[in-house]
Amino acid sequence: MTQEGTIVSDNPVIKKGARITGGERTTLADDLKAKYAQGASIRALAAETGRSYGFVHRILTESDVSLRSRGGATRGSRKAS
């Protein structure tokens, strides 16, 4: 359930733009880590928590998560047939 300026999910309510430190940051990092490991994208996690892509990316890298490479088609040379 989303309310203006707040996100309500499995996490405690996080106000948009609020600093997240200490135990709350550790709890959020553990939750994001688990969801990312289950296949959620950084963009999906950012939308779910109401935080920016950069914030979620930073939390995951601070937690020593091995990030997946970007998906989609690659722009390499085609194999000759």
TrEMBL record:
Residues 14-75 form the Helix-turn-helix domain. It comes from the Bacteria. It holds the Pfam family HTH_58. This is Transcriptional regulator. It comes from Quadrisphaera granulorum.
